[in-house]
Task: structure prediction
Amino acid sequence: MNSKAQLTITHLTKKFEANSVNEKTALLDFNLEVQKGDFITILGSNGAGKSTLFNAILGKFLPDKGSILLDGEDITYEKDYKRALNIGCLYQNPMRGTAPNMTIEENLALAYTRKSTHRFFAVNKKDSAYFRELLASLDLGLEDRMKTKMGLLSGGQRQAAALLMATIAKPKLLLLDEHTAALDPATAEKVLRITRSIISERGLTALMITHNMEQALAFGNRTIMMDSGRLVLDVRDEERAAMTPQKLVELFSRSARQALSDRTQLSVS
Ligand SMILES: Nc1ncnc2c1ncn2[C@@H]1O[C@H](COP(=O)(O)OP(=O)(O)OP(=O)(O)O)[C@@H](O)[C@H]1O
Ligand SMILES: [Mg+2]
Result:
C-alpha cells in the first residue's frame, strides 16, 4: 500500500435487500486508492452506486465485504459519528448539515468546535474575527450577516456557508455529493469556484460527484466513472488532459452497454 494514500477502498461490496426479489447490488468489488491532496470527480448514471459509496465511507451502513482505510486507519467498522469528525460532507440539498435556526456565526462555531469535548461553546472575539475572514473570502457579503439565521440564506449562500462548515476543522476527506446540482448555473459556477479554492488552499483530499461531464474534467486532478457499483473508468494526467466531454459521453454509454450485456449474460447463465 502506498504510504501517501489518504483513502484506500478494497473489494467493497454492498447488496441491499439481499436474498429478496428487490435485491440490489449497489457496490460490487469496488477498489479505489486516493492520494493525499487528490481531488477526484465521480461520474456515473442514476443508480450507479455513487452516493452508496459515500454512505459506505461515512459508515451509514456496514459493507458485506471489503475494507475502508482513512489515513492509514481501518475505519470499516468504526461508528458513523466518529468518522464524521474526520470527514466533511455536502449534499445537493443545501438544507442538510446546517442548523437553520442558528446564526451563520453559531453554525461555524459549532463546526469549528466539533472535535472539542466541551458540551457548550461560546464564540470568542478571536474566533469571530476568523469566521468573518473566512466568510469574506467567499465574496458573497456574508461577513456582514454573521448574526443572520442560516435558514434565511438563499440556496447558494447557504451551500457556500455549508462548505466552510464542512472544511473549517480541516477534515481528512471532503465528500461532495452533487452539491451544486440544485443551484442556478451562475450560482453553481460560483460555488464550484469557491469549492476549488477551499480545497487547494487547505490542501484537502476530496471526492466530488457530478453529472456534468465538463465539470468532471475541469475540476480536480482525476476523474472516475462508476457503473452498476463498479469502477469502470479512471483517468488522470495526460490521458485526462486529452479527454473531452464528448469522449466521456461515449465511454459512459459504452460502459452502460457493457453492464447491460453483463447483466443479460448473468441472468441467462
Ligand atoms: N438504503 C437503501 N436501500 C435499498 N436500496 C438502496 C439503498 N441505497 C441505495 N440503494 C440502491 O442502490 C443503488 C445505487 O444507489 P445510489 O443512490 O448509490 O446511486 P447514485 O449513483 O448515487 O445515483 P444518482 O445519480 O441517482 O444519485 C440504487 O439502485 C438504489 O436504489
Ligand atoms: Mg446519488
About this structure: The first helix runs from residue 50 to 58. The chain is about 40% helix and 25% strand.
